[in-house]
Amino acid sequence: MRRLAAGPDTAVDTIGRCGIATKILRRTAAGPAVSGVAFDAATPWCPMPTIEYLVNAPLTPAAFVDILERSTLGERRPIDDAAAIEAMLAHADLTVTAWDGDRLVGVARTLTDFAFVGYLSELAVDVAYQRLGIGRALVERTRAAMGPRSKLVLLAAPAAEAYYPRIGFRPRSSAWILERRDPLR
Fold first, then answer.
1. Per residue in 40-93, pLDDT tens?
2. How many domains does the chain have?
3. Is residue 183 part of a domain?
C-alpha cells in the first residue's frame, strides 16, 4: 500500500484487496485528524487490485492525458492541445483520482460550486480496470467532497450511456448543448 503526503485540501483513503481497509486523512482547524475503519476479508486468490483514492491530489497533464487515452475518453477530449489540458486541470474545482500502486487507473474531474450543483466533466477509468467498481467509487467520493446539498450532472459518452443509470443517475430530456462552433441565434 502506497503512503502519500496529504496537503491541506487532500483526503486519502484506500480499498484493500478483497475487503475494505479505509484510512481517511482530513485537515481540521486544529490540524490533521485521522480516522479509519477496516473489514478484513482478504483471501490469497482474490484478483481485486488495491485501489487508493485521492481527492484534489496533484495531477500532471501527461498523467491526465494518459488515463483519458486508456479509458477511451481521449477520443472526445483535446488531448493534443497541451494548453487546453493544462487549463482543464487548473480550473477544475474537484478531482478524485484512483491509483493501483503508482499507476493512475481512474479520474473524476468536476466543476462545482460545492453548494448546489457539480458538472462531472470526466469520469475516466482505464479499460483494464473497468467493472471493478472504480467508476462508482470515484462518483461516490466526488459526491462526498461536494457536500450533502449539491447534485451531480454529466453528459455521458456514447459508450457509457447504459452505465450511468446502473449507478443511480436519472436521464433528463431537458439538457442542451451549445458547441463552440454553433452560432448563438
1. 344 344 456 789 999 999 999 999 999 999 998 888 999 999 999 999 999 999
2. 1
3. no
E strands, the chain, in order = 11-15, 20-28, 31-39, 51-55, 94-100, 103-112, 117-125, 151-153
Give the pLDDT confidence of 133-142 residue by residue, as tens digits.
999 999 999 9
Query: Can you give the residue range of the structural domain that contains 22?
Result: 11-166
CB within 8 A of 57, min separation 6: which ones?
4, 7, 10, 95, 97
Strands 11-15 and 20-28: unpaired
The four Cα atoms 103, 79, 152, 180 give a dihedral, to 10 degrees, of 180
Whether 15 and 22 have beta carbons less than 8 Å apart is answered as yes
Residue type, 154: L
CATH number at residue 90: 3.40.630.30
